[in-house]
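Batch job 17 of 40 flagged for manual review because the log was empty.
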Amino acid sequence: MPTLKAIPTNVITGFLGVGKSTAILELLKRKPEGERWAVLVNEFGEVGIDGSLFSGQESEQQGVFVREVPGGCMCCAAGLPMQIALNMLLARSKPDRLLIEPTGLGHPREVLEVLGAEHYREVLDLRATLTLVDARKISDERYTSHATFNQQLAVADVIVANKSDQYQPGDFQKLVDYLESEVTVADKSVHQVSHGQLQLSWLQAPASQYSCDHHHHHASPETATSVLESPQMPAEGYLCIDNQGEGFFSRGWIFSPEWVFDGLKLSALLMGVEAERIKGVFVTEQGIIAFNKADGVLTESQLDDSLDSRIECIGTDRALLESLEAKLLDCGTRQ
């Protein structure tokens, strides 16, 4: 019987809004023809948006398979949500490569520990961990004092300064200086890119060895394992789910398919919402629209299909998210 080849596996991490999903979509566009790639996506919020973003632009017919683990850091509860989702994804896709995107507020070292566990050693071939970072954030103490931000840089084999087209002179050098003073960079390569333009060759770099340090704060196991349950849709046709951790709050909504929204009203509404991160996919009168907001910039893109409408907002001020529901309802009608 032939020996099964271990699947080359990369973790692609980075803080909220740095462009991880965009970078993975760019990689998928350059996937070698004939290969099957699997993507495991973890989101801080309970709703789960990225699966719709990926599946709306790539499909299993094109050799791309996606599975989500919403609801906080997927390595919580002894890695159970992650292992269940990963095992199901591998069984369905039988991929030539696996990409894993932890939430921007997750703990990449612990994710790597799960992937390096004994029962995965003959299944997964761990390759380089890529960490995306916005060099402009080095001047913001909210980032440099955040343990997760620094852990993401520490575990990286390849550090990618994304959004370089928006940098001012000196921004990249500040990042380099910070890495040299706060992070061991001897074995790391550092690159500048715009729009998430990662190179396929970076995925092939070897992985480093990581310590097994479990001293970190997780979301509760009850929250982490909620991915195993299917939410019950109330009579009004939508539900709201909250999460919190690492100093951030999330509020997300799922709307059943009979809700149809006005894309122009949504765009105007989301432009005015002050949140650290907003992602949404909506069934609108103008088609299926994906909304993405980071650093105060809202972008929109058309998708081919979506089973429902959903949005996730993440911020440090819970009060800012509590008045959003009524405004979202004003943008839609239930048909």
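Reviewer: the log was empty due to a logging misconfiguration, but the result itself is present. Residues 53 and 258 are 20 Å apart (CA to CA). Unflagging and moving on to job 18.
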